[in-house]
Amino acid sequence: MPLNRLKELNTRECLWVYILRILSEKPTHAYTLRREIEKRFGFRPGTMTAYNVLYLLGRSGYVTKQEKGRIKVYTITPKGKDALKEAVGFYNNMSKRLSF
Q: pLDDT tens for residues 19-69?
């Protein structure tokens, strides 16, 4: 069904948007991110998927990581905030264009 494919493309394959959105409110760790994504957006990313996306976001300068004991806490950077604003603008623009 086309709607299922659309949901898949805009959730799991665009996980970085959801992660940056949550991190824009406060620093947190990967386990909490996964729970928050499920609670707020209605899907649960795989454990390794969330960690892989966080790794790539960190490597690209969108988030930073600070180790607090055994827990790694992630924080959005100014570059990450800019990327999130662009993504939200994209979705808002698409929503307006697709509206009846």
A: 999 999 999 988 899 999 999 999 888 888 889 999 999 999 999 999 988
Domain residue limits at 71: 2-98
Number of domains in the chain: 1
Phi-psi region of 64 (alpha: psi -120 to 50; beta: other; left: phi over 0): beta
Which tens digits make up the pLDDT trace of 67-99? 988 889 999 999 999 999 999 999 999 888 988
Residues 23 and 6: their CA atoms lie apart, in Å, by 24
**What is the CATH number for 10?**
1.10.10.10
Helices (H), the chain: 2-10, 15-23, 30-41, 47-59, 78-98
Using an 8 Å Cβ cutoff, are 20 and 80 in contact?
yes
pTM of the full structure: 0.90
Helix (H) or strand (E) holding 75: strand 71-76
